[in-house]
Amino acid sequence: MALPFRREADETDRLLALSDGVIAIAITLLVLEITVPEIPPGSQISVLPNLIIERWHEFFGFVLSFLVIASYWVNHRRIFVHIERHDKGIVWLNHLFLLMVVLVPFASSVFATYPDQFGVMFLSGTLALTGFSLALLWSYASWKQLVEDGFGSRTVEIQAARFLTSPLVFVLSIVAASFDVGFGVLTWLLLIPLNAALQSRLVENLEAYDSDSEYEGTG
């Protein structure tokens, strides 16, 4: 019985295929939350541009959720690039991540319908939990030593920091929105410089790791 279990542990293709499919569906459903405004009876069609502009929060929620899910997909892909095998814990933590991903379109819809304090906090909370579930997946994989051999602890730490950046920004957004809704929305902009800085550090460490691997291979 050990051989079939070992084959199952080494197989990640189906897990990735399921994840890609779920994420693709969730990211597509986001656009359905953008509604076409109806022109009031007796009004001219010239009022349509203003009606669309009034729904700016729907477009903003769509773009934000799309970019965040896309970022989480990139991080998810990056995790499984370095995971060589998996166990039941990885499978169920991955399902937890997918559970949160499919909730994002609903959270985006709530924000589009109620672009107030509750809407900002609800969307931020959902995106934060999604990010935390992904960080938990990486932490579990590194703790269980399911990542490729020789993967440096420093790189593991930078990866963890990279995965925690976005959810922590959304937690900050929740706190900020409790005082001022506009400030809560503005905190989302922190995602750009923080993720860019950590991504640069991560690339440097991965390049150093690849160089060391090549050197050991030729030694």
From TrEMBL:
The entry's keywords: Ion channel, Ion transport, Membrane, Potassium, Potassium channel, Potassium transport, Transmembrane, Transmembrane helix, Transport
Transmembrane as UniProt keyword: yes
Subcellular location: Membrane
Catalytic activity: K(+)(in) = K(+)(out)
Protein name: DUF1211 domain-containing membrane protein
Any single Pfam family the record assigns to this protein: TMEM175
Organism: Haloprofundus marisrubri
Bilayer-spanning residue ranges: 15-36, 56-75, 96-114, 120-143, 164-191
UniProt similarity note: Belongs to the TMEM175 family.
Domain of life: Archaea
Annotated InterPro entries: TMEM175-like
Record-level GO cellular component terms: membrane
GO molecular function: potassium channel activity; proton channel activity
Topological category with respect to the lipid bilayer: Multi-pass membrane protein
